[in-house]
Write a structure and sequence with these properties.
Elements lengths: L6 E2 L40 H4 L4 H17 L5 E2 L1 E2 L5 E2 L10 E9 L3 H8 L5 H14 L4 E11 L4 H18 L2 E9 L9 E12 L14 E6 L8 H11 L7 E2 L4 E2 H5 L7 H10 L4 E4 L4 H7 L6 E6 L7 H10 L3 H5 L6 E7 L4 H9 L5 E9 L4 E4 L6
Helix pairs in contact: 2-5, 4-5, 8-12
Length: 394
């Protein structure tokens, strides 16, 4: 395994008086072992045994050098240190505006969407998908994302490719307001093909206990505010790939009139990151709960924040899914119930908000460039979520 880029305390301590004393600095290669040869041992030109096994430490070092600038841009004031050590450090003493802080954590990956990035040889957007998956699972409880780590497994470390992935992760962290404090790149020759990789990440955030969102706050009369997705986001790609590649035999460079782009370009549209907008929504309104619409679709994910004595009814006629969803439906002859149980169908996040706050909620989200609308309401019931009506044109 090739070490990634965890944080190493730097020589200059942070200005915050409460920050811990830091150990002396060390080089970025501190994690690589120093091997001493026995006296009199013959020095040969034999290639490094680890390199012969398929692990290229020099390539990993090159990747670290290429990604440093991007990682630095994601810093928060609470971060301590730079690249090269074993762990990332975050000064929690700076979080002073909490009486009863709760830490929240989330971990996820982007699934088989990485196959599209690999085929397109375009790797600088998959990081947005990764960050979106983890931070938006976090903010639904009202937690502010603080920091994140990532893990990249690959058959062969190609420095430019790894750096492009981390560039996207770092840029997305900036958009989400969290720091990228560390990560790991693991080279798995023989397990993954040289051009194959997978990515995963974990994030930690904080929320004041009294402001925790969830099913315990949802009330009858709340409205369901839907937030538009950028596209497929990062779920359902096994179905999508089956429809377009296996059933239809399409190539990624196929120009699709309905999409106004190539198939590959549409399938790589980055996941929308709702974190800052959702936190602003929680501050501006009395929002009771939120749900991140990922695997399982709209109804299943909304049901996760419904109390057992209430139900939600949503009207499909309030929105039209983007063309990519209709294309999957038609090209693959996929029944609508299967689509709704797999894809987000154009809704990436929902909020359950008091009816009096609707105008403020929609205006707040619009300020972040997010189109939102009232899709349904909460009524007495049994914890179920029902979709009625039909999308225009379907």
């Amino acid at each position: 395994m090739v070490s990634g880029w965890p944080l190493l305390p730097v020589a200059e301590p942070p200005t915050r008086s409460t920050a811990p004393d830091l150990p002396p600095p060390a080089s970025d290669r501190q994690r690589l072992p120093v091997i001493e040869r026995p006296e009199g041992a013959e020095v040969t030109e034999t290639p490094n045994a680890y390199a012969e096994a398929g692990v290229d430490i020099e390539a990993a070092d090159r990747a670290i050098e290429l990604m440093k600038g991007w990682v630095e841009k994601s810093r928060r004031p609470e971060m301590i240190g730079g690249l090269g050590g074993f762990a990332g450090l975050f000064d929690v003493s700076a979080l002073k505006n909490y009486e009863h802080p709760l830490l929240a954590t989330s971990t996820d990956g982007v699934g088989t969407k990485v196959d599209i990035a690999r085929r397109m040889d375009k790797h600088d957007t998959i990081g947005f998908d990764l960050v979106g998956m983890v931070v938006d699972d976090l903010v639904v409880c009202g937690a502010e994302p603080l920091f994140m780590t990532d893990y990249i497994a690959t058959g062969k470390v190609v420095p430019e490719r790894i750096a492009a992935i981390v560039k996207g992760i770092a840029e997305a962290c900036v958009e989400a307001g969290c720091a990228l404090v560390g990560g790991e790149t693991a080279e798995h020759p023989g397990l993954l093909a040289p051009d194959e990789y997978d990515v995963a990440g974990a994030t930690t955030g904080v929320v004041e206990k009294s402001r925790l969102l969830g099913a315990h706050k949802v009330e009858a009369g709340d409205v369901v505010i839907a937030m538009k997705a950028s596209g497929l986001h990062s779920n359902g790609y096994s179905l999508v790939r089956h429809v377009f590649f296996n059933k239809a035999g399409w190539d990624l460079d196929r120009q699709v009139d309905e999409l106004g782009s190539s198939l590959g370009e549409e399938l790589l549209v980055p996941t929308r990151i709702y974190a800052k907008a959702c936190l602003a929504l929680a501050d501006a309104t009395g929002t009771h709960a939120m749900s991140h619409i990922t695997g399982g679709g709209l109804a299943a994910n909304l049901a996760r924040v419904m109390p057992k004595e209430l139900s939600a009814t949503l009207d499909r006629a309030t929105w039209t899914p983007q063309p990519i969803f209709d294309l999957v439906r038609k090209v693959g002859a996929v029944p609508q119930p299967d689509l709704e149980a797999t894809l987000n169908l154009g809704v990436g996040m929902v909020a359950l908000t008091p009816a009096d706050d609707v105008d403020t909620a929609i205006a707040t989200l619009a300020g972040f460039g997010i189109e939102a609308w009232v899709a349904g309401e909460v009524t007495p019931g049994d914890g179920s979520v029902t979709l009625t009506g039909q999308h225009a044109g379907w």
